[in-house]
């Protein structure tokens, strides 16, 4: 029992993003986001974003944040009547926040990670004063959480920005975005800083590819690394400012992490794995250590680009604005061999692991490996802020889902996490599983791929009652939290 019980004060909860969960896109003065024009989709029919050229031509470039195609600079987003845009309604947390927070409290959550919608606070990003209705909505959310002694973990920017900043400035490719971001962050610190200790400056910043997350029309090559540099500086300045305004605060940024294995012990495969890992370490090292690592030049050369343009004082800001903790998502592992494409998340197949219907390997030991690897490198506390299983749930006539597969996934991953903490002595602040209430999938834009412990009656086209019904995993997770992880030992 003691092997699985986690340290006193461990934070248990769930995580969401506004454009997948919140909805209310045309209410309360909210402006248009870079994700609002993205349609639904599936594995076989990828979601896309609808854009229109000045001559009226409709274009639909793929929106994947891994292999984004160019978005022409003159193209502007357009909503088409024959398309469904999931972010507009999502699962309507905007009107269900009291019900949803109570469900989370019933499971014993003491933390809830959510993102604040940038365009709900500054509709175009350029306003001098924030939108009061937007601020008041998040006041209500945080106050509701306080009723249950639940701490907020706020993601300042979760793969999004006001559309105008993307169209007018080419998003993070333009250094002016740093000032717009800081204005936004300062507003949040001054408004919610007395009630929020934990902050994330960016979500999965090492996945800064695609128009939706970056607002950059060509978020690859030189532009990708230039955009990333501006985000590094913005994060560091926000951390420094946040510590000044909120001396008690702690800051992280979130990274998409999959453990990476070489497919064989062939030296070329081993070395390829090292290089692929550097593509992730680049982001963690700069923000966690406060400087560009020596191998950065190798990465730029590998991608046939120049070093990002840096302003006088940037190096000092990066040193002063180092993160307090390292947070990350972990869903799967990847296997690579020499010659595989860079950023190939799927990599080569792993014959030792089972896969989900979406082809994601199930690898709980990879989480323990990953935690050790990150902490050995950075020597700062960790926070597992996303982990979960996307699956096809089959509800009965009462919308009850018997999701033993999800329980098995969470049990194995939580047990691996507990071993990293208790046996390997990796400090970890907490765990927020992804999507405690069913929400829209980022990669496919569908509801079919469900992560939640609570079933939401809604289909891929947004049709349904939106009724919330706890699944079997709901009570299982409640027991794990109530024992601070100790109950995991009963099932191993």
The outline comes out as globular
Compute the separation of the termini in Å: 10 Å
What share of the residues does DSSP label as strand, in percent?
Answer: 5-15%
User: Uncertain runs with pLDDT below 50, 5 residues or more?
Assistant: 63-68
Helix content: 25-40%
Q: Tell me the number of helical segments per DSSP (H or I, 4 or more residues long).
A: 14
Helix-strand topology string: EHEEEHEHHEHHEHHEEEHHHEEHEHEEEH
As for the number of domains, it is 1
Structural class: alpha/beta
Q: How many E strands?
A: 16
The multimeric state of the shown protein is: single chain
Q: Please state the CA-atom Rg, rounded to the nearest Å.
A: 21 Å
CATH class: Alpha Beta
- What average pLDDT do the residues reach? 93
Give a short account of the largest sheet.
9 strands, parallel
Which strand order does the major sheet show?
Answer: 8-7-6-5-1-14-13-11-9
Model description:
By secondary structure, the chain is α/β, with parallel strands linked by helices. It has one domain (about 10-30, about 85-490): TIM Barrel (Alpha-Beta Barrel). It is about 35% helix and about 10% strand. The chain is built from 14 helices and 16 strands. The strands form 4 sheets. A 9-stranded parallel β-sheet has the order 8-7-6-5-1-14-13-11-9. Helix 2 (about 95-105) packs parallel to helix 4 (about 130-145) and helix 6 packs parallel to helix 8 (about 220-245).
């Amino acid at each position: 029992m003691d092997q699985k019980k986690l340290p006193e004060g461990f934070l248990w909860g769930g995580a969401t993003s506004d454009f997948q969960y919140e909805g209310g896109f045309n209410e309360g003065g909210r402006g248009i986001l870079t994700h609002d024009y993205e349609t639904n989709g599936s594995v076989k029919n990828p979601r896309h974003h609808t854009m229109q050229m000045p001559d009226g031509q409709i274009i639909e470039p793929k929106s994947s944040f891994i292999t984004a195609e160019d978005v022409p600079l003159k193209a502007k987003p357009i909503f088409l009547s024959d398309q469904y845009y999931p972010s507009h309604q999502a699962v309507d947390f905007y009107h269900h926040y009291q019900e949803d927070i109570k469900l989370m409290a019933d499971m014993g959550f003491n933390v809830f990670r959510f993102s604040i919608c940038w365009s709900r606070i500054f509709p175009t990003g350029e306003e001098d004063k924030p939108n009061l209705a937007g601020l008041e909505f998040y006041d209500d959310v945080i106050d509701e959480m306080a009723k249950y002694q639940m701490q907020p973990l706020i993601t300042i920017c979760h793969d999004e920005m006001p559309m105008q900043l993307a169209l007018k400035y080419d998003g993070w490719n333009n250094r002016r975005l740093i000032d717009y971001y800081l204005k936004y962050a300062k507003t949040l610190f001054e408004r919610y800083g007395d009630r929020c200790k934990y902050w994330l400056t960016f979500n999965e910043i090492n996945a800064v590819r695609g128009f939706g997350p970056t607002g950059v029309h060509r978020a690859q090559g030189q532009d990708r690394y230039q955009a990333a540099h501006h985000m590094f500086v913005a994060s560091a300045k926000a951390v420094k400012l946040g510590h000044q305004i909120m001396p008690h605060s702690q800051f992280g940024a979130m990274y998409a992490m999959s453990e990476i294995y070489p497919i064989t012990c062939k030296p070329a495969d081993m070395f390829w794995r090292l290089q692929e890992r550097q593509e992730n370490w680049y982001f963690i090292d700069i923000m966690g250590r406060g400087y560009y690592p020596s191998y950065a030049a190798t990465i730029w050369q590998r991608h046939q680009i120049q070093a990002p343009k840096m302003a006088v004082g940037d190096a000092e800001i990066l040193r002063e604005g180092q993160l307090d903790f390292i947070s990350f998502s972990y869903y799967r592992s990847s296997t690579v061999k020499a010659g595989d494409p860079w950023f190939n998340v799927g990599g080569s197949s792993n014959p030792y692991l089972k896969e989900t219907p979406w082809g994601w390997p199930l690898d709980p030991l990879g989480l323990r490996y990953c935690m050790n690897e990150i902490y050995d490198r950075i020597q700062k506390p960790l926070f597992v802020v996303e982990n979960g299983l996307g699956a096809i749930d089959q509800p009965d006539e009462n919308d009850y889902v018997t999701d033993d597969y999800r329980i098995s996934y969470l049990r194995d991953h939580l047990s691996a996490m507990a071993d990293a903490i208790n046996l390997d002595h990796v400090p970890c602040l907490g765990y927020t599983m992804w999507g405690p209430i069913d929400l829209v999938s980022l990669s496919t834009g569908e509801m079919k791929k469900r992560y939640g412990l609570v079933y939401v009656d809604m289909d891929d086209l947004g049709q349904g009652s939106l009724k919330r019904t706890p699944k079997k995993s709901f009570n299982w997770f409640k027991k794990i939290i109530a024992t601070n992880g100790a109950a995991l030992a009963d099932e191993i």
